[in-house]
């Protein structure tokens, strides 16, 4: 068993009580219309100005800047329409809705250059389906009001283009003995252009234009009562509401920032200060549309949002080549920890999107490590296939009993293996 060597973490016994979710099917099959809308974070509902436009029918008629070198068509169009995903642009191109110099182009990798005239119409969102799947779930706690799940790394929380199956929602639908849910696709920030799973708050589903009341499709969120979510690569604890009262209570707790969330990460390098508070707004990275960025200064409407993370170094590892860092969130913006870690100069190990590449990790570790460790170290680092980030602790007030309940689950084997080896090289406890 992995030991984090800190008194702030404890492992609580799993609640063994099983409970069928079939009685909440009517709740799951209704839209959560009492909440203002969707967001790319797990922020409180009152911080959400409203559901994003779905961009259907948005037109772009523009000439490529003469100073621009050759660019992929999908990349250029994405950069010219703020907020639309690259996957959505690619779908529009493949649907024949984009022309270059008057000729329809259905190749997403078509190269455009300065002087080219591009006409584009964004395609309608395509309905997505969440099918019940018999997926093993690590259920940490369950009663008739809430469900706490320990999500494995690489599991997407909800279906999205490129991730239609194997999702946490599909597993919950099977666990609930609920039917297929059909919903209108949404714009999401992605880790790999068309695959996403950001921390998110309550989601309001929209009825599909082709909705058939006689079918089993539901006018609901495809995320049954999920009040927040974790990135695809992040492992750890996530809470699901099982009725409307629980959903409202949990949403209010997120709004007031009373939900306790503790994350641990393995970083590339050690921060200059072993503890601190990062109060830097986060917005979409203007240089890379599949990631967010910490943007110093006053939050700008539509460009960045207030974001605060507290961190502290638990251990310095491998003579300072890495660190075990604890994070506590005051807000819950998209990729908040990952963006703030990059801003501090300590990207999460394995986070290829935010700079924690294998080469970066080894460039910091090897100079500080005796040669006898290099072979095994290279092997372990090469095997890391996700950001080393784990949602360790989740605490909230029970929606029905009012009791403060807390759950902790230690990181999975992939995280534990690299941490153990870095400790074997050298460890220095800090806090």
From TrEMBL:
Annotated ranges, domain RNA-binding S4: 71-136
Keyword field contains Secreted: no
GO biological processes: enzyme-directed rRNA pseudouridine synthesis
Keyword RNA-binding belongs to the record: yes
One Pfam family hit: PseudoU_synth_2
Keywords: Isomerase, RNA-binding
One example GO MF annotation: pseudouridine synthase activity
Source taxon at top rank: Eukaryota
Family label: Belongs to the pseudouridine synthase RluA family.
PANTHER family per record: MITOCHONDRIAL RNA PSEUDOURIDINE SYNTHASE, RNA PSEUDOURIDYLATE SYNTHASE DOMAIN-CONTAINING PROTEIN 1
Protein name listed in UniProt: RNA pseudourine synthase 2, chloroplastic
Naturally occurring in which organism (per UniProt): Solanum tuberosum (Potato)
């Amino acid at each position: 068993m992995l030991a984090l060597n800190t008194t702030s973490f404890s492992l609580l016994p799993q609640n063994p009580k099983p409970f069928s979710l079939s009685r909440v099917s009517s709740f799951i099959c209704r839209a959560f219309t009492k909440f203002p809308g969707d967001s790319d974070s797990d922020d409180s509902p009152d911080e959400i100005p409203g559901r994003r436009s779905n961009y259907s029918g948005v037109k772009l008629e523009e000439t490529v800047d003469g100073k621009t070198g050759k660019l992929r068509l999908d990349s250029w169009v994405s950069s010219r329409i703020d907020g639309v995903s690259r996957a959505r642009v690619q779908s529009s191109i493949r649907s024949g809705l984009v022309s270059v110099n008057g000729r329809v182009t259905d190749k997403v990798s078509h190269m455009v250059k300065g002087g080219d005239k591009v006409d584009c119409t964004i395609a309608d969102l395509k309905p997505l389906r969440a099918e019940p799947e018999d997926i093993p779930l690590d259920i940490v706690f369950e009663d008739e009001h809430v469900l706490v799940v320990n999500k494995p790394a690489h599991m997407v929380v909800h279906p999205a283009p490129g991730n239609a199956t194997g999702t946490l929602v599909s597993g919950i639908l099977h666990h609930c003995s609920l039917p297929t849910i059909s919903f209108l696709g949404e714009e999401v920030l992605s880790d790999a252009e068309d695959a996403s799973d950001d921390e998110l708050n309550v989601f309001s589903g929209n009825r599909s234009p082709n909705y058939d009341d006689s079918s089993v499709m539901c006018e609901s969120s495809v995320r049954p009562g999920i009040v927040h979510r974790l990135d695809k690569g992040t492992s750890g604890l996530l809470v699901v509401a099982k009725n409307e009262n629980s959903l409202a209570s949990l949403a209010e707790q997120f709004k007031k920032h009373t939900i306790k969330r503790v994350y641990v990460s393995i970083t590339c390098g050690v921060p200059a200060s072993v503890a601190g508070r990062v109060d830097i707004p986060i917005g979409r990275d203007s240089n890379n549309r599949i990631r967010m960025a910490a943007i110093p200064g006053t939050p700008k409407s539509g460009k960045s949002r207030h974001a605060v993370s507290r961190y502290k170094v638990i251990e310095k590892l491998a003579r300072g080549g890495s660190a075990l860092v604890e994070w506590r969130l005051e807000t819950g913006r998209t990729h908040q920890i990952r963006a703030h870690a990059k801003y501090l100069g300590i990207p999460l190990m394995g986070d290829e999107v935010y700079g924690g590449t294998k080469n970066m990790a080894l460039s910091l570790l090897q100079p500080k490590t005796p040669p006898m460790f290099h072979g095994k170290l290279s092997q372990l680092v090469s095997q890391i296939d996700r950001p080393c980030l784990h949602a360790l602790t989740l605490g909230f007030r029970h929606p029905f009993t009012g009791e403060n309940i807390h759950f902790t689950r230690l990181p999975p084997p992939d995280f534990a293996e690299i941490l153990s080896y870095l400790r074997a090289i050298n460890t220095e406890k800090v806090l």
